[in-house]
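Reposting from the mailing list since nobody answered there.

I have sequence plus structure tokens for a pair of proteins and want to know whether others read the tokens the same way I do. The first protein:
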Amino acid sequence: MIPKPVIINVPVDDVDAGIDFYESFLGLRLARSLSPDQISFHAPVSSDGILLTVNKRNFPGEGVTLMFAVEDIDAALASWKAAGGTVVAGPYDLPLPRKIRDEFRDQFRDSPFFRGEAGDSMGRGASLHDAEGNRIGIVELSEWAHATFALGAYARPVTAEQLKDQSIALARRVPATTEMFDANDPADAADD
């Protein structure tokens, strides 16, 4: 399985202003997330299970983080490290806060994504840096959450047409980036 983007996390300094901005931009309200450790809000931004989360910035310079769902977080971490990436944090549990578990489970039963009782945890996650220092995250979501994020039996995998288009792109004879553009050609010159 190709790791699927499931969460786009946007950290903000002013949570109220961030929520107002994204609610206005998206045209829908953000719901309070279940994170016990931070103030976070979310909304679906695609029909294939991608959520936008807006939360209080955890550290200066924290940027947007894309979270990918993986089938096996331990195998994904080993592969990540073998490729030259580093693990910043995790793997860690993604628990449902005890104080709201019963209420969440009652509400989840009314969800169109209900396929079975919610457990005590959404799954496990990790925060990573690639070889260039870019931050991403990975999550191994509990099976009961798969319908919400269109994973597992609910996934819509990459199509044969998309893979064919990718193979066409890979077959192109594209020169090195430094050779692709002619600095003397006005059509290739950067706008000032």
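The second protein, same order (residues first, tokens after):
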Amino acid sequence: MSPSVAAVQQSAVHSPTPPARLRVARVLLIIAAVGAVGAAVGQIQVVFDAGGATKVVETWRLYGFVVFAGLFALLAVRPRGNLTVWLLVITNKLALTVTGLAYQAHGGIADTDAIITWDGGLTVLLLAAFALSRPRAGQSAA
């Protein structure tokens, strides 16, 4: 039985992602996951030291680091996996970066440099990993 025309056309348009590109994407995602774990570990003392006015916010931030470490690890294991997870993590980091830039332009708001540096860097890293993990269009499936 011969393959369907649609399957042949699909394989001609989208070849598999080259293994080297997937390895680089995975390394970038592992870096992101390890960074998020490190941020979570560093946040533990911040939670213990936080006063009543900021304890909940600092705890929320700690749990966010843990969740993102898990999401980055999930993507490292299956970079061609769930597109929705990619969209969520990239959108979140991009939104934080844009918010940091807006806060910096406003002036007088603490930690904008940290947001722009860390979340902006993660946005670039995630976009690179995403691009590397996608199949190349227009190559023959050889």
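Reply #1 (J.P.):
I read it the same way you do. Helices lie at 5-13, 19-49, 55-77, 83-106, 112-133.
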